[in-house]
Structures are given as C-alpha cells and as structure tokens.
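Section: Multi-chain targets

For targets with more than one molecule, the full set of components is provided together so that the structure can be written out for the assembly as a whole rather than chain by chain. Components appear in the order listed by the source. The example entry contains two components.
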Amino acid sequence: MVELSGRTVFAGEATADLLVLDAPLSFWGGTDSGGTIVDGHHPQRGVSLTGRVVALPSARGSSSSSSVLAEQIRAGTGPAALVLTEPDAILMLGAWVAAELYGLRLPIVVLTAAEHRLLCARSGPVTVLAGPERATITA
Amino acid sequence: MGDVLELSEEDKSMLAGEAGPAAQLCLRMIVALARVRGARRLLDVESAHVDGCLYHGRAGLDFAERLVGLGGRVAVPTTSNVGSLDLRHPGVVRADPETTAGARRLMSAYTALGCSPTWTCAPYQLTHRPAFGTHVAWAESNAIVFVNSVLGARTDRYGDFLDIGAAITGRVPDGGLHQDANRRATIRLDCARLPPALLAEDAAWGVLGHLAGRAAGSGVPVLTGVGDAVTEDQLKAFGAAAASGGGVGLFHVVGVTPEAPTLAAVAAEDIETVRVEDLRPMRDELSTARGPGLDALCLGTPHFSLTEFERLAALADGEPFRIPVYVTTSRAVLAEAGRLGFAAPVRAAGARIVVDTCTYITPILDPVLRTVMTTSGKWAWYAPGNIGVETVLGSLAECVASARAGTVVRDGALWSS
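Its structure, encoded as tokens over all components, is:
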C-alpha cells in the first residue's frame, strides 16, 4: 500500500485498476471513441483505457483531444482517472466540459516525477481522491 | 497553484452574468483553466481560431449548441478550423449519415456563434495575420505553432472548448506561451551538417519537425545552421510535424523567425544541443509502408498554400497521374489558385481538390486505397491510426513522380547525407 499526494488538475473521485502507459498519448488521433489506443506508433496500441486509472507521462499532440476526451466521458468509454507528471490544459478542458454538460467527473491529478514512478511500479486497484487543490492516490 | 488569480472588474461582472449566460459559462471555464495554470490574471486577445468545429461525437456538438442556446456570440474576429465535411463538394466525404448530420450541425453552430466560415487549419494563409507580440487565442496544433513561431504573436496551446470560450469572452489566462519566460528555447537542433539540397525540400522540414517534436516534447526547439532561405511552407511543415510528433507550441529558427535574430536572443549558452546529420531514419519512421506499392497521394496537411499550388501546377504539367491524388486546401486559397491558373493544371493531371476538411480526419479515400504517399510529416504520423492506411513520406517531386508511375519513386541522392 502506498499513499501519494498530488495536485488536482480536475477534481473528482475514482477507484479502478491501474493502467500505466509507457509513452505520451494524444487522445485525438491516438485513441478511438471506444477508448482504445489506435496510435500505431504507441507501444500500447490496442489497449483499452476504458474504466482504468491511467498513468501516463504527459499528453501530446492535437488540441482536439479535449473534444475526444469529453465524448469518451459522455459515452462511458473514457478512463476513470488520469495521472500525469505535468498539468495538461487540453485534457482538463475535456473533463471540465463533460462535468458541465453531463455531471460526469473524470479526476485528473499531477504527481512529481518521483511519485509518478512509485505509482507506475504498482498494479491493481487504485483510488484517486482529487479535492479542490490537493489529491490523494492510494495504490 | 497557490498563486492568486486577480480578476478585473469586467471579468467579475462577466462571471456575474452581466455579459450574458454564454460569456458567463465561458469565463468560468477560463477561470478554471487559469487556476490550473497558476495564472495571476487574464489577458485580452485580439483574435481567435476555433478548432472545435471538427466533429468527434455528441459532446462537442452539445457544447456548441449549448452556447448557441445561451445566445453566445464571438467578441473578437474568429476563424474556423476544418470541419468534418467538404461543404462545397458534399459527396467527397464517405461518413455515415449520423456523423454527416452531426458534422453539419456542428459547423452551423459555430457559424451561428459568429465564427467566419473559413474552415481551414491554416488561418495564417488568409489575409488577416496577427501582429508581432499581440495576444491571440488559437487552437489547432499547427496553427498554434505557426502563429507563435513564424508570426511572433502569442497564444498558448489551446484546445477545443477553450478556443470558443476565449472568442466569446475575449479573455485567456496569462500563462504558458503568453509569457516571455516560457518562450525561451529548451533544446537546440544544429542542422549545419544537413545537405542544403535536402533542406530546400518542404518534406525534409516535415521530417526535421518530427525529430524536433520527439526531442523537445512540449518544450521549445531552436534550429541553427539552416541558412536564411527558409520559406513559410517549410516553416509550416516543420511546425505541424513538431506539434504532432511532440507537443511543440513554439519553435525558433535563428536568423529566420522573428524572436530569434541570434541564438543568444532565445537560448542560454549551455543549452542542450543535438547535432542533426541524417534525416533518413526519421523519414523511415514516418513511412510505415514496405515495398514500392502505392495506391494514392495526399497533399496539403496543413492546408496547401498558394505557393504550394504554384509548385504543384508546374510539376503536374504533362503526364497525368495514374493513381488517385487528393489536395486539401481552404476555400480562400482555392479561389486564389483558380484565379491565378494554378488549380486547372492540377485538376487536369487528375487530382481531386478537397476544401473545408482534410483527408486524414474523415473518410474521403476509397477504403481499397491501402498505401498512400505524402509530403506531410503530420499526415504521415496520424493517418495510420486515423484512417488505417500505410504511409510513405517523400518530397513533392518524389510524390509527383510516384503518382505518375503508380509506384514509389525515390530520388536516391536527395535523402543521403
């Protein structure tokens, strides 16, 4: 059991199995509406993000990722939470709009690189409690 | 966080709903973003470019129609990015009827909000260009990197939703690439050993941009050693690939881009330097196809410029293409290319010109076309995942020769160093 403390990018709560991505990911062009990684260059192509606490180093690429993420949240195919090492405005906006339109909250948390590595070494269920500013991740 | 966001009196009154419910909703979004970014205040923007008109499903449409329903209207000149349809040539997109209807409604919603129906990812090719040092809110990764780097105006890496929010409120967080400190280079690519003949090719700049994106991530690359005969089309190709291969929102080219008259103007003395000597490995990373088979050619990602039309018109003159060739551009550039006589020879050689959208974001190509050649690092990077084709990246001359031969034709001397 490890408890990590991070910064909230978007508040919310989730408990789900951890999925660690080995490379940055652009949601637009990199994932489909079903929440599967379709970026042929990504080491985890074909893996589903749906319902997982996804730890990834950072986002990448297109500014359409906010629409793609919002649509995945609406359709129930999105991740359960995102844990990054740097705040990403584009993903945060996708989460914000999904919360505003549909009342569905996808927590987004930033950890330091060292704490992110600790999380990535874990597996199994992870609980993300992201308050207005600070977040706790129990893995 | 911890920084305190100070709002102006106008911001406070907008948050209280005095500028209407659409502006109120949008400013709440911008304030939420500003808090995440640690911004201390909001800034006025002079223009906006909206990426959100590309259809990704109901959420994007619900948001745009919510703003229309709340009486939203842009407060600054606002251009629209590509949509998911070619409104001028309705048969060209093979999407299902539900997607087509959604895409049409989305484009209508953004027009109703007051966006100019430009439908282009290259708004910098239109007549209005933001001035050096002015703040704007542009979305679409290639438009962002171009306006920041080539024009020297300032936008952060904005995405869908925030773009129209900034257009309606005229405000953005004062953070990211709006601030001097974040516009310094983080990595230097020394290109002095690349052959000048290769650097004269736009496609080489796409490959170099991809390399820069991989090396810089979301940082700021600076190029040295490329001379000063760099064209806007080359900078366009570079920035688009750097933004898709990494998260680059700004680059500098010493002696070329306006913030970088010298290396010292944009970088610390001890900046990490990568010496670029051979672009072939990166070109091959952007070429997923193996073997000489070729089914189609796609040009114009980002949208073809007038100068690119002129070059293609000269190359296309003569023997017709043996495989389908698609050129994507904006309505405005196509009108000008038609007037100047550049569109007719391109069409006469057999090319199909598509406007308002792009060939890698929506089903335009016949599904039997499996291997596609392009000059665009961005197209080559995204098309395999987006539309399931294999790619070959090449120079414009290689592409035209290949389209005539119906098989991949390489200029053996070009890419070797």
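The helical segments of chain A are 27-30, 65-75, 89-102, 113-120.
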